[in-house]
């Protein structure tokens, strides 16, 4: 069973998931073979190569775990955390640990092996977003979970072990340190100014436009003022909204458009880079904080995090966000 272990110096939890040593990505030659369309476990007709589906959007005349779907959600075959069992919080001298209880799911975004998320028709990008919402709504019923993270690793350099377009969900029994820090500093800003820092960012970026990549009725895409990575891009709702799963139908359409077009710009500007994106949402076990604002962070993998960054927590970004935004705005899509 996986374990969660707490670093007593900076209160950071680490997942010790020894079972993931069995992942195909730990055996490069096998991984290369598995990413071919003929052997891909995510392609239609190979549903028996994944765990049983948890959710699917499919033709009504087709059966679960058979072809006929256009989005499919399955448990990760090599999970970082597992859903069965109890937390069993315990100490080992000065150290704290608990069982690695959680959920780890894969959202297979398309049956077409050769399409990526920005290649999909807008309706299907909308459906991916609806699946994110559906799974959060379902998993938040489990009181063991404190946080649910949606993320996508695209490309081997970004950590993807299979090339078929997919994203992932991990539900954890603790609030991750990065998210807790965001919430704490958002709270401090709110207590001082009585305003949401994210809402203020949206207003300033719309006003100055120097870091604005694009906008529509409900969302803004921009390169953050203190971007950690070249061409790092954030998507935020224009209206204050701290809970992603409360998203409305018109907002889903706008988010799908903003996400698709942003990824298209990055693809064209950077020659289809590997990238990660993450959806940061409010924790599950607290009153939803008025000072927090859900958002998506997209981080192309153009540079490597090296010794200075690991040792200090600083990031060295060789491209200014103003230059990156200007370049992305000028891309014709």
Could you walk me through the main structural features you see in this protein, from its secondary elements to its overall organization?
It is a single chain. With about 325 residues, the chain is an alpha+beta fold. It folds into two domains: about 5-175, 2-Layer Sandwich (HIT family, subunit A); about 180-330, HIT family, subunit A (2-Layer Sandwich). It is about 25% helix and about 25% strand. It has seven helices and 14 strands. The protein has helices at about 30-35, 120-140, 175-195, 195-210, 250-270, 305-310, 320-330, and strands at about 5, 10-15, 55-60, 70-75, 90, 95-100, 105-110, 145-155, 165-170, 210-215, 220, 235, 275-280, 295-300. It has a ten-stranded antiparallel β-sheet, with helices on both faces. The chain has a four-stranded antiparallel β-sheet with strand order 2-1-6-5, with no helix packed on it. Helix 2 packs across helix 5 (about 250-270). The chain is globular, with a radius of gyration of 20 Å.
């Amino acid at each position: 069973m996986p374990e969660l272990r707490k670093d007593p110096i900076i209160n950071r939890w680490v997942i010790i998931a020894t079972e993931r040593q069995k992942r195909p990505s730990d055996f490069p030659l096998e991984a290369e073979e598995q990413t071919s369309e003929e052997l891909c476990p995510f392609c239609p007709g190979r549903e028996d190569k994944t765990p049983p589906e948890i959710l699917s959007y499919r033709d009504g005349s087709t059966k679960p775990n058979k072809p006929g779907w256009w989005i499919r959600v399955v448990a990760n075959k090599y999970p970082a955390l597992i859903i069965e069992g109890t937390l069993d919080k315990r100490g080992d001298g000065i150290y704290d640990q608990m069982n690695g209880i959680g959920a780890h799911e894969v959202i297979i975004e398309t049956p077409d092996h050769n399409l990526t998320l920005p290649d999909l028709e807008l309706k299907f990008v909308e459906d991916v977003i609806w699946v994110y919402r559906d799974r959060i709504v379902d998993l938040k019923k489990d009181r063991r979970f404190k946080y649910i993270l949606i993320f996508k690793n695209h490309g081997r350099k970004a950590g993807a072990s299979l090339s078929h377009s997919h994203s992932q969900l991990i539900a954890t029994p603790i609030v991750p340190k990065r998210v807790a820090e965001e919430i704490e500093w958002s709270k401090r800003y709110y207590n001082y100014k009585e305003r949401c820092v994210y809402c203020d960012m949206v207003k300033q970026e719309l006003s100055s436009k120097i870091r604005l990549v694009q906008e529509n009725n409900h969302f803004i895409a921009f390169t953050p003022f203190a971007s950690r990575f070249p061409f790092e891009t954030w998507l935020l709702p224009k209206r204050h909204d701290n809970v992603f799963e409360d998203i409305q139908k018109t907002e889903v359409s706008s988010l799908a458009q903003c996400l698709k077009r942003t990824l298209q710009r990055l693809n064209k500007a950077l020659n289809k880079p590997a990238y990660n994106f993450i959806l940061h949402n409010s924790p599950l076990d607290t009153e939803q904080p008025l000072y927090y604002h859900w958002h998506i962070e997209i981080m192309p993998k153009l540079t490597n995090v090296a010794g200075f960054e690991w040792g200090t927590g600083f990031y060295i970004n060789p491209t200014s966000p103003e230059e990156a935004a200007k370049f992305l705005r000028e891309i014709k899509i």
